[in-house]
Design a protein that fits this description.
Elements lengths: L2 E3 L6 E3 L1 E4 L10 H13 L4 E3 L8 H13 L7 E6 L16 H15 L4 E6 L8 H13 L3 E6 L4 H14 L6 E2 L9 H6 L1 H6 L3 E4 L28 H7 L2 H17 L3 H9 L8 E4 L4 H8 L1 H4 L5 H11 L9
Length: 329
Amino acid sequence: MEYRRLGRSGLQLSVLSFGSWVTFHGQVEDNTADELMGIAYEKGINFFDNAETYANGQSELMMGRVLKKKNWDRTSYIVSSKAYFGSRDKPVPNQTGLSRKHLVEACHEALKRLQLDYLDLYFCHRPDPNVPIEEVVWTMHNLVQQGKALYWGTSQWSAAEIMEAHKVAQQYCLIGPVMEQPQYNMFERFKMELDYLPVFRSVGLGTTIWSPLAAGFLSGKYLKGIPKDSRFAMPGYEWLVKRWLQEDRIEKTKKLAGLASRLGVSLPALAIAWTVRDATTTTTAILGATRKEQLLENLKALEVLPLLTHEVLEEIEGILDNKPVLDLA
């Protein structure tokens, strides 16, 4: 396993990590979660990602039970939570968003569910235009100062919003955001490759990538339809079908599968390796899996990295034809 520093912090994360979105409580139960987290840990993964909104808190409860049972050395792994959407089916005011009240209460609830004394990483899961940025930065600073979280960051924020948070932190001598959790994959490239460039250069930014396989689309399993036991077949996730099952993307994925075959690797391993190819901007890519075989195959992305020569990367660009460029018009 390779380890990379989280932005300009001193924290080191495994280049591949393990997350629970959709899968924990939605697709797997405790015994499978226990097996998958055990495999991940044994293979050198040290970062496990979660959020208050995943299965309305049930995902954190499940991960907490597994961590309690594993009894690993607490200093050997990293756990995150994210706050914004809340953990309740029908939230009332102040049970969502980034107000000081919700951020503090969500942190306490996450710690209780995960059965931990502190969070390693705590994310503001979306920007909140209804809350002054000063309130957000002060709250996250205080949680770090209190030892309830060690590092704080953002998820799905724009570069301008992240820089605004840094401006406030510098103005009041507060602890600013260290990391961002954006979506990044072969079909979702703008933020990582263009929007965040000034942030990487000026203040530094660690990234914990979600959906490196485009919600499983880049695994190739949807090229001949939607399997009954897949994420796309689950009630409430019809938006994933609409987003990813587009004819041009299907054709490009078929070509990528052909390239992977010629390289002697699987399509998901190739897609994940492509996502983490740049160590200067990508800290870790979060894997999601429901089966042991699936996780082990995705971990082979580390073996694919050396195969991503200039020529191979150029061929991938030729297939994708979607590299973001700065519009100066």
